[in-house]
Amino acid sequence: AQSVTQPDIHITVSEGASLELRCNYSYGATPYLFWYVQSPGQGLQLLLKYFSGDTLVQGIKGFEAEFKRSQSSFNLRKPSVHWSDAAEYFCAVGPLGDYKLSFGAGTTVTVRA
Amino acid sequence: EAQVTQNPRYLITVTGKKLTVTCSQNMNHEYMSWYRQDPGLGLRQIYYSMNVEVTDKGDVPEGYKVSRKEKRNFPLILESPSPNQTSLYFCASWDRATGELFFGEGSRLTVL
User: Fold this and answer.
1) Is the Cβ of B46 closer than 8 Å to some Cβ of chain A?
2) Which of A4, A49, A90 is closest, CB to CB, to B100?
3) CA-to-CA distance for A106 and A91, rounded, in angstroms?
């Protein structure tokens, strides 16, 4: 069975500081990994995805994530956060080319001035 | 513009009063799904549909029904809502080519 753990429920970061959100997954084969962002009152928007190739993937809004197979992790990073990055972030894992994604519980990011 | 549209966005109802949350997508996706989002639990899948007239249970189907009579529409039906169905609901459709799920903006349901 596949599962996703996001260890941090809530993170507070200062505007301009760096941000790293952790994601650990459990999956028996090659995973298809995603990060989604949910801004207040909005649906989920895809930030980036990984399924093969370069383990460092770039996404929208200046985010990047690194796939580390040995650690079963897919952590999301941003070098300098903006107030508009305040949102809830979800990591998801699924079989390659399949719709059956499992989502983590989410990490809420608060940005302070 | 590619989008998934849900209605209503907000609804307060009472126990036992049947309601339907509509979902429509304009991307010609075959696969559609409903999720509920609860604090600390992330998104849990309620039902999904692989194509017209093909639906199946997700992880938390109890108390819900769905139908898929047209490719673009996938309504979620609560025949007799109960307070434990108070939640934020998302409809999504899946792009087979990219593997991406496209989500609606969510429907916040309160059952009193």
Assistant:
1) no
2) A49
3) 7
Asked whether A22 and A4 are in contact (CB, 8 A), the reply is no
Q: What is the pLDDT of residues B87-101, one digit of tens each?
A: 999 999 998 888 888
Please enumerate in sequence order all residues whose Cβ is within 8 A of that of B60, keeping only pairs 6 or more positions apart, or say none: B36, B44, B45, B46
Q: Which residue of chain B has the CA closest to A7?
A: B40
Q: Does residue A105 belong to the interface with chain B, where contact is any CB pair within 8 Å?
A: yes
Query: Using only C-alpha atoms, what is the Rg of chain A?
Result: 13
The pLDDT of residue A30 is above 80: no
Residue A41 pLDDT grade (very low, low, confident, very high; cuts 50, 70, 90): confident
| A27: Cβ contacts below 8 Å, ≥ 6 apart | A2, A3, A72, A93, A95
Give the nearest partner residue to A99 out of B4, B44, B94, using CB atoms. B94
